[in-house]
Write a structure and sequence with these properties.
The structure is a homodimer. The first copy, chain A, has three domains: about 170 residues, Thiamin diphosphate (ThDP)-binding fold, Pyr/PP domains (Rossmann fold, 3-Layer(aba) Sandwich), CATH 3.40.50.970; about 160 residues, TPP-binding domain (Rossmann fold, 3-Layer(aba) Sandwich); about 200 residues, 3-Layer(aba) Sandwich (Rossmann fold). The first copy, chain A, has 22 helices and 21 strands. A seven-stranded mixed beta sheet of chain A has the order 11-10-9-12-13-14-15, with helices on both faces. Chain A has a six-stranded parallel beta sheet with strand order 3-2-4-5-7-6, with helices on both faces.
């Protein structure tokens, strides 16, 4: 150990987390992690206790999507294995989450006594986590910990992927070197010649196209390229669509934004405008099933330029070692500036499915429908809202709802683990205390992870939660409707009182919704609004997703 | 495929499950598993929908501890990875649980499209599960499935360990051969010479000992050796103790049962009787930390015979290839029959901590304490009860409570994943509809997995649930008491109404407890009794476990 050593391994790690912008650490205690938690309590990072570990992981994911990084801490095995699906979601969706486990002391890893929580081979949790992280480490000593921590945490940010650290109880307070500035390695750069050649070819295609269009998707968000994308649009005048994963990459009131593209489930105009374009520039697109209308995208390869994080594909050939950032910046310079009026741009704000530019007249006695509900919501969402939508009827309709200025839309639209949004709402609320967080979650999903509604109340968070009670798993009813899609009916809105307080409403009609929204708008506490709709009431896009899933799974 | 083929792979699997004694399958649906669930609905196995997957796994574990085997089913990745900690617990504790996953169709495993729920490498969940199961398989075709299923399921029963089956959507309805009788391989047998030699040495030691004693523990339960053990005791007259994991191996009213041995946390008589014995026969002991009073057992090796599933250790030498069953049976024949009155036997029923032979006079106005509560509970538990105790204050006091005739005690006493018992209670209730299931669970643990209280209500189960509300994680307060041990206070008893009905009580005093128990005794519905006790109110054994955990983790 060096003479200058004067922080503990725990302090080193906590300083690094703070440098990553992580001010809150979600978790559940357990004896192997108490030593680390003692250090957390004495640090600049605030500990947020959740009811269970899966929700801690989901909260860290929601936090990371707002802040740029998040973290959670659990105890060995029983805790971390309860959370592992949360981190798997972050891995699938490229969210930089740091999973920290407090483990038995190092010596036990070799002697393997039958301590509670253990599984024979003490490295089983590490082996599991290594499958769903970009980097992972067992911190073995004060001497080796700083390099291991730095490797893991820089990988997290550079690759925008989750990582894992296992911290044995006796290593927590070992002394180690003081951390310097966060050692983030420089962003990868392009091969200069390949970059130039790809931009030349792409700009020729785009400049000669009469009706080009852009699709801006998820990687622009994950790699923080919104500014570059906005500058590109301003300079070129081109219209753009987003896919579900890329929703709210920029303000949806943007004059060049034409709406949500989801293959053959898109609105007619968007569908035609993109699939009939003579050149389509895809920036950061992830061609997942939900993103592509179950792979119904029909864009001819001859007309396609597709740039991703580290490569560009034009027609059928690939330019490796071209970064998305440099490609967008370079292409901006090479493209001619167009007059948007020549480009067949119908703004989303004038055409998308649920939008606040359409007058909404409540019919007080009418039972609520999903469609009318989201029509109304378009008027309710405030600027800069963080809108979180759970996989299912909520996600598919919320995705088709125009988001207000500055809004951020969050859904686990690829991994699709139901229950995700309860934890994510806790995380997003703590990440952005100055923004209104609005959650849309179905009853079946809510049952999976409901308990951490209480954690929002405990920590004074004030999201507005719409519980869409459609009496079961509607997303599966549209695939096959059999009794396994039924769930136990709860009096959801009454949970608020059981958990400690907040405003709760039980809404069956449009009139009741108006009354609830009126109170919600000015509320200084958590608002929970239970919305009753029909069992099969959902968007056409979800219905068609259900048909596609029935085909994929050889059902029916 | 052979000409005789005339069941589907799903039917084959379901017939095998039924042959294992599995009548109920716990699970949560998802599109990749709907095809299999359709077959379940048409089978002799009843589908039980839980609120989340972790509870499905815990339910299958509780079911298996009562029935001899259990199973749960989830969808790919998002479902199974939420459940994996439940199966890890079954692995640590040797509980034969079958985990079944519905996965994307086989072809996708090679082409790896970006389907929802996927993680790049489609085999990641399989790789994780293979680390915590005795056998696992991806079912690839109708031709190969029967052998794979049979290998996995026979391993489950023969090794008393959890197993995993991944069933792709397109394989579900592939045709395969009709299953014959369950192909359980014969139990392993001993090497005859080694068995004889071990029994000779052991019988000499025991026959010449003046004050021998037996410890019967968990493996006697897991491998179904209770009858052999009872016969051994009847023939030899020896006294026996159990450890926490082995609690209720036989009736605790047994005339030779002296009580719970947990190293230096044992009652004085048990402690002295065992540690001063001139020969200790350990049958099926798992020397885990909670089982051994944090490794405080002091039994001299020179006086110890320790038989486990596949080997016997005497003093410091090991006899391999000796089975526990044959050793017990053979030893029975070689030991002399003793007069119990010469053996210093003080029956547990006369001496253990909480027992129904002590008169209990309620003091109606007195606030409840843990000690008084369990004194009272000794009188409440009916014969043949299944008593489930959650890790924490509940477990440590329940373990010191005398169980009535025919009772079965369940705790996750080695793995110790809090929240386990909620699912386990659901599983045990369905496994034994003719027995009263009684749960003791702490508030912190209950928050982890509370939602499946609603599933018990949904399926008409009638357990009596004691929610021990001590305002936080008491098991951790006795290690270090800092704010991470605080939790949000809930009105727990009101959840019953939110979830759909049952009897609920909020109990602060002994008088209120009497009133609640009077109603609970005859109730034909779920009973939920919230018990308020002090934050630090727990047994001396838990307090000492806390001190040991503080030392193990270098705290304090």
């Amino acid at each position: 150990m060096s003479a200058q050593a004067d922080v503990s391994v725990a302090e080193y790690l906590l300083i690094r987390l703070k440098q990553m912008g992580i001010d809150h650490l979600f978790g559940v205690p357990g004896d192997f992690v108490l030593g680390f938690l003692n250090e957390v309590l004495d640090s600049q990072v605030r500990y947020i206790g959740t009811c269970n570990e899966l929700n801690a992981a989901y909260a860290a994911d929601g936090y990371a999507r707002v802040r740029g990084a998040g973290a959670f801490v659990t105890t060995y095995a029983v805790g971390e294995l309860s959370a592992i699906n949360g981190l798997a979601g972050a891995f699938a969706e490229r969210v930089p989450v740091v999973a920290i486990t407090g483990a038995p002391s190092m010596g036990y890893f070799k002697t393997r006594p039958l301590l509670h929580h253990t599984l024979g081979d003490y490295q089983i949790p590490l082996k599991m986590y290594s499958l769903i992280t970009a980097a992972s480490a067992l911190l073995e000593s004060g001497e080796s910990a700083p390099a291991a921590i730095d490797h893991v945490l820089t990988t997290c940010l550079r690759q925008q992927q989750p990582v894992y650290l296992c911290l044995p109880a006796d290593v927590v307070r070992m002394r180690c070197s003081v951390p310097g500035p966060f050692p983030l390695p420089p962003e990868p750069t392009s091969d200069a010649g390949t970059l130039r050649e790809s931009i030349e070819e792409a700009s020729e295609m785009l400049n000669s196209a009469a009706k080009p269009v852009v699709i801006g998707d998820v990687e622009l968000i994950r790699y923080g390229l919104q500014d570059e994308f906005a500058a590109f649009l301003a300079r070129t005048g081109l219209p753009y669509a987003t896919m579900m994963l890329g929703k709210t990459v920029l303000d949806e009131t943007h004059p060049q934004f034409i709406g949500l593209y989801q293959g053959d489930r898109s609105r007619d105009y968007v569908h035609q405008r993109i699939e009939n374009a003579d050149c389509v520039l895809q920036l950061g697109v992830a061609p997942t099933d939900f993103n592509t209308g179950s792979f119904s995208v029909k864009i001819h390869e001859d007309r396609t330029i597709s740039a991703n994080f580290r490569s560009v594909r034009i027609k059928r050939h690939i330019y490796p070692d071209v970064t998305l950032r440099e490609f967008i910046q370079g292409l901006s310079q090479q493209l001619r500036s167009r007059d948007p009026s020549t480009l067949d741009i119908k703004r989303a704000i004038e055409g998308c499915t649920h939008r606040r530019t359409i007058n909404f007249e409540p019919q007080p006695e009418s039972p609520l429908t999903i469609s009318r509900f989201f029509d109304r919501i378009g008027h309710f969402l405030p600027p800069r809202a963080i809108v979180i939508a759970e996989t299912g009827a909520a996600l598919f309709s919320a995705a088709e709802t125009l988001m207000p200025e500055g809004a951020k839309f969050i859904g686990q639209t690829f991994y699709g683990s139901i229950g995700y949004t309860v934890g994510a709402t806790l995380g997003a609320s703590l990440a952005a205390p100055d923004r209104r967080v609005v959650l849309f979650v179905g009853d079946g999903s809510f049952q999976v992870t409901c308990q951490d509604l209480s954690t929002m109340i405990r920590y004074g968070q004030k999201p507005v939660i719409f519980l869409l009670n459609n009496d079961g798993y509607t997303i599966e009813r549209v695939i096959v409707d059999r009794p396994y899609n039924d769930i136990q009916p709860w009096k959801y809105h009454r949970l608020v009182e059981v958990f400690g307080g907040g405003l709760a409403f039980d809404v069956h009609t449009e009139g009741q919704l108006e009354a609830a929204l009126a109170q919600a708008a000015g509320a200084e506490e958590l608002v929970f609004i239970e919305i009753h709709t029909g069992r099969f009431d959902c968007s056409e896009s979800l219905r068609r997703a259900g048909e596609a899933m029935a085909r994929t799974n050889k059902l029916g």
